[in-house]
Amino acid sequence: MKILIYSANFAPEPTGIGKYSGEMAAWLVTQGHEVRVVTAPPHYPNWQVAREFRWPPYQRNQWQGVSVWRAPLWVPRTPGGLTRILYLLSFALTSLPLALLQVWWRPDVVLTVAPAFLCAPAGWLTARLSGAKAWLHLQDFEIDIAFTMGVVKNPLLRRVISRLESLMLKRFDRVSTISQRMVEKLQAKGVRRDRTWLFPNWVDTRHISPFDSDGKPRAASRYRHELGIPEEATVLLFSGTLGAKQGLLAIPTVARQLAHRSDICFLICGEGVMKPQLLAATADLPNFRVLPLQPSEHLGELLCTADIHLLPQSACAEDLVLPSKLSGMTASGRPVIATCRAGTELHQVVSQCGLVVTPDDVEALTTAVLQLADNPTLRVAMGRCGRAWAEANLEREAVLQRAFGNSGAAAPMLATKGAAVSGAP
Fold first, then answer.
1. Segment 398-407, tens digit of pLDDT
2. Which of 124, 131, 269, 321 sits CB 3.0–4.6 Å from 140 for a disulfide?
């Protein structure tokens, strides 16, 4: 089948939506599908366009059997509020001609990935003009997050935007998202139950594993040796995009309170808008290390360097996004400490394989760190639970087969053009 993926982020971006869109496209090619992608040049998580993609503004190339069409966009130095809206709008406008150009290719399915939701109208129109099925996949509810963070404050404008969002959502043949609570939110926005689908972010449980190729527990990683971290020290790791929605500044505060514990080390690895603030807040801390984003081939080793994973999340993002980094954390067989409210889906998952504290409660976070740091037996038990959950729910091949296999989300759309959309199981 011919599948068009319309996504502002794509490979070779190493994290976030670009990582998942790239892996999905490459997997579809291995299944015999013909895949095209309309996307932007790589720019995330560094928030600057990669040098080799800056000129010419429009490009077309091949990547792992995928035909990739790239449109330029404006990338702000510090995204947030109005600048983020303008950034997403710029791609929606520049990519519109490329999306409509695919009508002549006659795809069977047009899969629009949001953010950016501003691209949803173009994705839907491309599908309708080409006789394809229209599929929208939401990695987060960016409009709700904008409301929660106060980007749009006028009540009338908020009602108008919410109404337009609901009308757009209901026009798609299939609307999927990454957590069950987010699926329920789609239905609350008016999307028919039989058109919604749970399509979680996956993890390669073979690459990220607490065991080596012989099935033995991983030995101390080279990261500990290179950073001068003793093998017997307890390492608390946050790895991923350093964004504003995550409450990351709580980690340096906890590290400062535990600076007297030479057996506890904090490690942050990643890139993003919060990195300068994190570096400034930890410059004098002997128990704190900061690393740049590591190559994807080293991700398994990096995540297994940790004894405990830290997953802070701002309360404003709860149940509007399920952090994709949770999949790698659980697959590594290490316990997780998350900051989230009771009753959220993140709380539901992490409470099975770690500890949960209320956002912005630094004292509770410090207590949780000490509870796990001083109890290796509890860490092992929680880590095993997390690994079992990842294997059962997030294994990459299983997730993609559920979405694109004979009974998956795409099956009714891949069967025949113009066929009715059947209900999700």
1. 999 999 876 6
2. 321
Sequence-separated (6 or more) residues with CB below 8 Å from residue 151: 81, 82, 84, 85
Query: Which helix (DSSP H) or strand (DSSP E) does residue 54 occupy?
Result: none
Full DSSP string of 103-144: GGG--SEEEEEES-GGGHHHHHHHHHHHTPEEEEEESS-HHH
DSSP β-bridge partners for residue 217:
211
Q: For residue 153, give Cα distances in angstroms to 52, 74, 141, 156.
A: 39, 24, 17, 9
Half-sphere exposure at residue 282, Cβ-oriented, CA atoms within 13 angstroms: 25
Residue 399 near residue 202 (C-beta atoms within 8 A): yes
Residue listed under structure tokens 């995550």: 246
Model confidence, pTM? 0.88
Q: How far is CA 338 from CA 245, 246, 289, 361, 386, in A?
A: 14, 10, 20, 11, 13
What are the strands of the beta sheet with 308-312, ordered from one edge?
Answer: 288-291, 264-269, 234-239, 308-312, 336-339, 354-357
> Which residues, in sequence order, are CB contacts of 354 under 8 Å at separation 6+?
308, 309, 335, 336, 337, 338, 372, 382, 386
pLDDT in tens, 354-406: 999 998 899 999 999 999 999 999 999 999 999 999 999 999 999 999 998 76
Phi, psi of 417 (to 5 degrees): -65, 135
Which pLDDT score is estimated for 374? 96
Strand ranges in 161-222 using DSSP code E only, listed in sequence order: 174-177, 196-198
For residue 185, the tally of other CB atoms under 10 A from its CB is 18
Instruction: Report the percentage of the chain scoring pLDDT > 70.
Output: 92
Residue 10: CA count within 13 A, CB half-sphere: 27
User: Starting at the edge strand that comes first in sequence, how are the strands of the sheet with 34-39 ordered?
Assistant: 59-63, 66-70, 34-39, 2-7, 109-114, 133-138, 174-177, 196-198
